[in-house]
Amino acid sequence: MNNLVLASSSVEAAALEDAKNRLAEAGGTLATLGRNLLSAATAASGELAGEDQSKLVEFAEQELQPLASAFARAFAGAAGKDAAVAQLAASHTARLAEAAKNLEGQEAPVQVVHAGARLQEAGAAFLEHATELMLPALAQNPSLTLTGILPDRVAGAPAEAAPATGGCACGGHDEPGLAELDTRVIPHAIRHATIFGALEGLSSGKGILLIANHNPLPLLAQLEQRSAGKFAVDYVENGPDTWKLSMVRN
Question: The domain at 10-140 falls in which architecture?
Answer without folding.
Answer: Up-down Bundle (1.20)
